[in-house]
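Propose amino acids for all 120 sites.
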């Protein structure tokens, strides 16, 4: 099953969602601001994407600066706790498919993990 961690207020997230719909791809939409990912789910996604916790943190429009998250004193586990408590800190959209997981910024990154031979 394909999942998209979606924020309706994000243009890139909306474009990715629209792309999936336009190509008749079945997927589950997770409104992660309402249903935040757990620390365990975030760890799995990060491992699948080959990203560090800091690479997944979103700064713009978040409490990143207020929480002093650029400070190296925070461990990965603590940063994940902040993302669970403040899901807006998670960059988006993240798409999970059987082929892999990607932070789809830019939106075209989703093509790496979809089976769409006509677009390859």
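Proposal:
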């Amino acid at each position: 099953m394909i999942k998209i961690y979606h924020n309706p207020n994000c243009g890139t997230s909306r474009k990715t969602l629209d792309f999936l719909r336009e190509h008749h791809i079945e997927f589950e939409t997770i409104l992660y601001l309402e249903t935040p990912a757990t620390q365990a789910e975030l760890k799995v996604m990060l491992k699948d994407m080959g990203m560090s916790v800091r690479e997944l943190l979103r700064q713009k429009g978040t409490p990143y600066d207020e929480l002093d998250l650029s400070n190296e004193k925070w461990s990965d586990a603590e940063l994940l706790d902040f993302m669970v408590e403040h899901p807006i800190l998670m960059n988006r959209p993240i798409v999970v498919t059987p082929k892999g997981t990607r932070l789809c910024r830019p939106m075209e990154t989703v093509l790496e993990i979809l089976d769409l031979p006509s677009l390859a």
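The chain has a mean pLDDT of 95. The radius of gyration is 14 Å.
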